[in-house]
Amino acid sequence: MSGIFFSPTPRGLEALLADELRAFGAIDPRPMPGGVEWSGDWTACWRANLESRLATRVLWRVGQGRYRNEADIYRLAHGLTWAKWFTPTDTIRVFVTARQSPLKSLEFVTLKVKDAVCDHFRAVRGSRPSVDTAQPMVRIHVFLDRDAVTLYLDTSGEPLYKRGFKPGTVEAPLKENLAAGILMLSGWRTDEPLHDSMCGSGTFLAEAAQMALDIAPGLGRGFAFERLRGFEADAWVAIREAAQARRQPARPLPIRGSDIAGSQIRRARENLAAAGLEACVSLERADVLELAPSAPGGVMVANPPYGVRLGEAEALAAFYPRLGDALKKHWAGWRCYLLSADMNLPRAIGLKASRRKPLFNGALECRLFEYAIVAGSMRSR
């Protein structure tokens, strides 16, 4: 059975995700702002959940139609065959997003869709599912534009950037799928030296090690599609075992991380150990302004701080020129990539960016600045 799916991704990574989905068997992936719409069978859906490094979710389209008011949305939702896909003992939650919708209250739309689903179950099964806003078993996503509504069942469950190994309380400032996308945008080869000079909790490092060892990012977690009615467990096991067979054993890799804060190094080490990757990555406490690379060339990535509170902007105004001097002094021969929401960074750092790629870290608009460091080319101040 085939269907139409939508996979959200951080803004700026849509074209990369389309290429990735095509490799999993997606048909005609169509990039659009914030994601990719594509067609495919359930094998492609399962592989996208298991293997995509860039998707945030895989949403299965179950209904679409025109609307003028909330009553139209209720009728469309009530007419869908929800009882074919899950049972009244499954808990649900409805998520509504909109762009240019004339409706005033998304909360009211959420309530009407929930009522439509529950009324459908009462009519065909005699009982209704309960709502769980914390850990729902079934997530129903509704998207409204100016005059059309689309309803999806979420086949992923927890967002796919949650790889399944970090402690539940850890929320990295950089999502794993954005980190993976930055590594892909850099052109980093998995046998090439990589250094994250402000590694924080180690998100870049873990993603790079998984890429180098061909570890499917979803091997350590479960998915919502496993609870849907009609799920073919035997076929899914074969796909999962094939991905597991490709996984290479842990080994030392040319991947290094450093941070000025010892607490961040400890946190990165804990996260890498939880993923079984501690032996793959070298970690050290070091100041990026004094750090020297361990190889004559490679890729350096960093998510440097940027000012959001009073006083931070002044501190960064002094830090950025010193960072530019350090890159010039120590990192000749390296391609350096800095992700920042501070658009003053390129002027303050004193280096000419060879590329500026717009990206979004959540709702925050950023730029990925590329600096190809060549000895002797920096203008004197």
Helix vs. strand class: alpha/beta
User: What name is given to the CATH topology of the largest domain?
Assistant: Rossmann fold
How far is it from the N-terminal to the C-terminal residue, by CA?
64 Å
Binned strand content: 15-25%
Helical content stands at 25-40%
3D structure, described in words:
The protein has 381 residues and is an alpha/beta fold. It has two domains: 2-154, 2-Layer Sandwich (VC0802-like), CATH 3.30.2130.30; 176-213 and 248-372, 3-Layer(aba) Sandwich (Rossmann fold), CATH 3.40.50.150. It contains ten helices and 14 strands. The chain has helices spanning 14-23, 42-51, 70-78, 106-125, 176-185, 203-212, 233-246, 262-274, 312-330, 345-349, and strands at residues 2-8, 27-32, 35-41, 59-66, 92-98, 138-144, 148-154, 194-196, 255-259, 281-285, 298-302, 334-340, 355-361, 364-372. Strand 13 and strand 14 form a beta hairpin. The radius of gyration is 23 Å and the shape is globular. The chain starts with a strand and ends in a 9-residue tail after the last strand.
